[in-house]
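Supplementary notes for students who missed Thursday's class. We covered one full example, reproduced here. Read the sequence, then the structure, then the short commentary at the end.
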Amino acid sequence: MDSKNFFKNNKRYFKFSICLILVAIVTIVFFRSSSNLDITLVYKEARDILSPFIYGIGIAYILNSNLKFLEASVFKNIKKKNIKRGLSITTTYVLLFSFLIWLISYLLPEIRNSLFDVSEYFKNFDINSFDKMIKENIPIDNKTIEEITVYMQDILAKFLKEFPNYAKKILSSTINIASVILNVILGIVISIYILFDKENIAKRSRKITFAILPKKTAISLINFCKESNSTFEKFFVGKIIDSTIIGLIFFAGASLLKAPFAVLLSIIIAVTNMIPFFGPFIGAIPTVFITLMFDISNPLKAVWITIFILLLQQFDGNILGPKILGDSIGVKPIGIIFAIIVGGAIFGPAGMFFGVPIFAVIFSTFNKFIDKKYFEKYGEKN
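Structure (token representation):
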């Protein structure tokens, strides 16, 4: 075989080899020129630069469900697509800004004042005060009180030592949110463009995927993305609605029971309820503890709060949750527990929340792969 035909027949292999060599050269040059480069610093700078786009994508993703609802119900009779989309986007952001105005004008000051009061209370609190309050308000014998005091002393002392610091950090974060306002504003602008042109963005992304990847791989990737989006969207929207309702119900109940810091405790219950399975228990601990500490003269109130939380979680788990979420994730309880434990161990609280839909997507994809292989081998679906 002459050299001309040899190069012609192996053209794609030479192209691949040249690309591989170029990648190797660029990699070597990069690492040699960046021997003192702090990767974490590069990541932080890149994240800061891309923050408006990250915010924009996140905001658009969260608001997309509301946009689809408005287009399908409120503005369904409008024929012109651009007008329908414009009205839906305008309504969506009017609702968003109304919520933000309420949040800034009412809710944030309430949270700030509650955190400040809790911080000041615990700053001047010691184990002797705790022992004294128990003896004065709870009718049990001294031996039992001593055992309880000894058991709680170390735990309570550590908590009381660190709590003001955590409260100050939370308070500082609440007060200094102005540092991210510009990125949020830019993110909102970007999200408007994304929502208005989302079909074209999806179409272009699909074209790029097919241009870069083999057809079979591209189809599989697109189907995977569609399924992932469906799972995440149903789970996030469902949990937000579910947790908001639970938080409002708890606020009404806590107000009737005259619990301290009803707004703050309701937010704790609502936020922790976003975590499946373990969330209600995580939220109940600080809620009952704060209620007991701030009204130690009436420990029965903490008992009623505990009972109310248990009843509320039973209502959520057996009635409200299934009605809103349905079978949106398609994972058995043992799978949810596994996802929460693994996700929490790797990524902390965020992993406990995101672990469930991620595991649902992985589990569904794995099941489809197994079913396909089984069918190819035995010619049966089950």
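Commentary. The radius of gyration is 28 Å. The mean pLDDT is 75. If anything here is unclear, bring it to office hours.
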